[in-house]
């Protein structure tokens, strides 16, 4: 992770160590707190629900976002990739096609979003923030037009092929399929970002874009691949989302956007150079999910949960960044 | 977009650069003008004075919020990841509207409720400033957390319901007219002029842009960078508080969902850079961008285009304008 950036001048080691572990420590503290004060937090049922409903899909989207942010970009259109892949997948299943084709169709739709982003950013030289913002607006229209203004599509029992259903619901060797998909996705992004030449170029692109350009590395190629990969990964999340709830609800992907960005940046707090990493992002996702679940269990209503999460994230980051920079 | 960070122009390239910059600058204006002309010919009633003031009125809320974002961009640079941004601005306006409406409902007069809303906005802005300047949290992340807090507090105050407001101030803002122009539009004009003066003709504005454009140089020149960044966030918060009163006036109530304006506000502030000479965030550019977005929405309405298409066509047009600009800039 850190090998692409030059070594930083020596700092007070104890402070540095403290600041890098602040997020991890905060996570442990929060888990312990809820384990003591929230009834049923540690029950198998709750943890399963936490992982399946709050963690998996957000984590997959956030993994895609991690790649993009590591490359120095940002993707505001991940929600569109989630939604379009979910929409095409459900429409194809509803039309009676087999699950394999529907999955391929959904992924293809998401990859199209990635290709559009790549063209806008690399060919037309639009800044990633604006380009993906534009795609977000266009994605809204695409969904409205294809669903008569935003009518959800629900699958009936008959339309949903039984074996496919079984795979999604039960998984392999007792591990639910969404969890397996998350593990595979995390490993794939880990290898791509932290253990390959591609990942080094991508990280370098984020840390020192000019150096990369002058080194003769093909910036547009790498940028394009990052955005297409992010869209494809979000597409996987969309298919998982719609196959767990057996429906497509327009604009439901938008809910993941800010959390995915938040989780990725919270994750940067664990690296000395404040760079995104797969481990950091997963920790960020877990932190957000545990806080939401725990606050719910100790009886806070949705409104106060929102405030609580904001304050907690604020405190965690304040401690982590505040300790870090005090001795610059 | 990061034109502020551009190095000094190379000797001998001055003339070429100036011409290409002129093309860029005019390009965005020509695009805007063409769209206005198109609507003037195709959309019935587009050019009536009533409709034109209506466009200004429709752009007021978006515009003033986008000014707040522009101030933050100006003081911190437009690099989205490393530079500043205020994701909390729309949620902040929603919170201020809730504070105002709830206080009015509880029987406090406007003399209490209006300052309370403005102070709330500034307090949220100060929290952003504290997180960014004192704690040095990345602005994108700090303001995201603050956005959550503001949204949560708004929901807690209003319990996710519509809080109706009746007051003379609201009536004046919503229905009053002066010299044939609605009060809301006057507010927009006055705020725009005041901010153009502060940002572009005052010493404070010059220093704000210095801090955003080249922090090191500003520090070396003796500018206290931190206070300007604080100032930008608090200013953005104050504008959010001001907008909240206008939102309540337009809807006669505080209504959940103001936070949804975040993306249009970002679009306006970023699009505004293509309407400026050096492709940097400016108040005038943001004003034009807000009017551009308002014109599009209005024209579509008059043409009877299904509302399904509005956001998509807006998104596509924004992309076309920005792409044309960046093409002109690079060629």
UniProtKB/TrEMBL annotation, chain A:
Protein name as catalogued: ABC transporter permease
One Pfam family per UniProt: BPD_transp_2
Subcellular location: Cell membrane
Major localization class: membrane
Keyword entries, A-Z: Cell inner membrane, Cell membrane, Membrane, Transmembrane, Transmembrane helix, Transport
Superkingdom of origin: Bacteria
Entries under InterPro entries matching the protein: ABC_transp_permease
Glycoprotein keyword on record: no
One GO MF term attached to the UniProt entry: transmembrane transporter activity
Membrane topology value: Multi-pass membrane protein
Organism: Mesobaculum littorinae
Cellular component per GO, a single term: plasma membrane
Ranges annotated as spanning the membrane: 20-43, 55-74, 86-116, 166-193, 223-243, 279-298, 304-323
UniProtKB/TrEMBL annotation, chain B:
InterPro entries in UniProt: ABC_transp_permease (IPR001851)
CDD domains, A to Z: TM_PBP1_transp_AraH_like
Membrane-spanning residues: 22-41, 61-80, 87-106, 112-133, 140-158, 178-199, 228-251, 257-275, 282-302, 308-328
Keyword Nucleotide-binding: no
Keywords linked to the UniProt accession: Cell inner membrane, Cell membrane, Membrane, Transmembrane, Transmembrane helix, Transport
The keyword GTP-binding belongs to this UniProt entry's keyword annotation: no
Coiled coil: none
Domain of life according to the entry: Bacteria
Main localization, broad class: membrane
Molecular function in Gene Ontology: transmembrane transporter activity
Location in or out of the cell: Cell membrane
PANTHER family per record: ABC TRANSPORTER PERMEASE PROTEIN YPHD-RELATED (PTHR32196:SF21), ABC TRANSPORTER PERMEASE PROTEIN YPHD-RELATED-RELATED (PTHR32196)
Protein name, UniProt field: ABC transporter permease
Source organism: Mesobaculum littorinae
Organism ancestry: Bacteria, Pseudomonadati, Pseudomonadota, Alphaproteobacteria, Rhodobacterales
